[in-house]
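agent> fetching stored inputs for the adenosine-5'-triphosphate docking request
agent> found them:
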Amino acid sequence: MGPMQPELHEKLAALLAICQKMNSERDLGALLDLMVREATHLLDCDRASIFLLDREHNQLWSKVALGSDEILRFDARMGIAGKAVQTGEVVNVRDAYSHPEFYNAIDGETGYRTRNVLAVAVRNQRGEVVGAFEALNKHTGAFGARDEAALDALASHAAIAIENAQLIGELRRSQDQLAEHNAHLMREVVGKFSVHGIIGAGVRIQQVVRLIERIRDSLVNVLVTGESGTGKELVAKAIHYSSSRARRPFVALNCAALPETLIESELFGIEKGVATGVESRAGLFQKADSGTLFLDEIGDLSPAAQAKILRVLQERVLERVGGRAPIPVDVRLLAATNKDLETEIARGGFREDLYYRIKVIHIHMPPLREIREEIPLLANRFLEEYCRETNRGAMEFSPGVLRRLLTAPWPGNVRQLRNEVMRLAAITHQNVIPEDDLWEDLPPAALPPQPVSPSAPRKEVSLKNAVADLEKHMIAGALESTRNNQQQAARLLGLSRQGLINKMKRYSIAG
Ligand SMILES: Nc1ncnc2c1ncn2[C@@H]1O[C@H](COP(=O)(O)OP(=O)(O)OP(=O)(O)O)[C@@H](O)[C@H]1O
Ligand SMILES: [Mg+2]
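agent> prediction call returned; pasting tokens
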């Protein structure tokens, strides 16, 4: 499976476009206009409308046209949109006037001639139907399965945006709480693709997120592995804060940071009088009692400390240094390492019995170069975060910067990407981050970039080849997802149409 799946790319591009603009479009009217415009582009059709359900009067309402304030209202049981709302299903009508449920009074009112209609229900996060999203008059032929899927995907984003915009609209009225709630709502929007701060829309990260959700209430020990900066600690915190122990302490220890001699008293505590002047002190196991203990770099533990931890895990009691009576503890252990513990075991550096105790569940975080398709989402989120925290207006990346971010080697993984985005945002005074800032400063390619498609024959690995591969892949994906509509594909890719045509020629991609 190539990392840049066209459907994912398409969804991401549409989602990013909406999310980005949502920063400035907190007003419901503007949001609806925005989504209607996105839909018209994505489905290559004449018009799109969003109907909102007014439950009290059982009516659907919508603005008559883009930018107008005139409101159209009708009985929620009427028409194709009404049918989508009533049944919750996709309704695809190829010939409107011969369809029994078509409500031609609307054409009568608006003076518009409907040929074909596609309507889907819009559901909020609780699964309740809150309206319908409708597309009218496909430019060529009728709406197909792809359009149905696209409109459905858009409708699910629309629901969240609408709900949030409606809520924000209400909040505007209570001025004093605005700032706080607004931030909360934004977090909820962001939350769609970020659970406990773990950002990622693709399968690899979503699998991790789903696993965390599945194990949230079992108290199994989890081992998180992965290179530096891939989010191991983030995952550990997500596990703790989504578990039933969330209100109890999360205690972390970096096993590599303390000398061997101090680790034991740090972990298990020390009894008064072990040495002159020593006061008794609780260890981290005790501090984490009924909570979670996170042992980072567990591969660096001494054999003595490993043996003691194993005993705590087996017997659920601990002994302080110099202590007599064992103390019962109830601790969930999470561990992380960027070492290969199986190699360590083979070398005799790590106990096999402890290994099986701590990795009841194993989560491996992929290096960023294996999940490049997440880079646009991550980079945009970090940029949003910067703007929010520094209270500056929205910023965006120029397409050139985004392309460079996509292909950089990232030996420091997500941490490095985050730092780079924060640095770029801090040194840029415009709203659009220009490529110049990056070419100068992006760390040089310390590692050769991976070939983008693992199945492709390995060519000479150079940055240039990797960029070419990625470009080819993205162009093919964009063309496929827009059914060879060059104008739309160019838009998805952030290129001009001529720029796209030039690249297609260079890579001999047929149009
Ligand atoms: N999927 C992700 N979504 C959002 N932020 C991420 C993600 N992965 C990593 N980060 C961010 O990258 C930075 C590094 O993450 P973290 O400290 O969890 O990495 P680590 O694997 O523990 O690294 P190390 O091995 O160097 O300790 C943090 O700022 C974290 O929030
Ligand atoms: Mg870490």
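agent> quick read of the result: The domain at 371-441 is CATH 1.10.8.60 (Helicase, Ruva Protein; domain 3).
agent> awaiting further instructions
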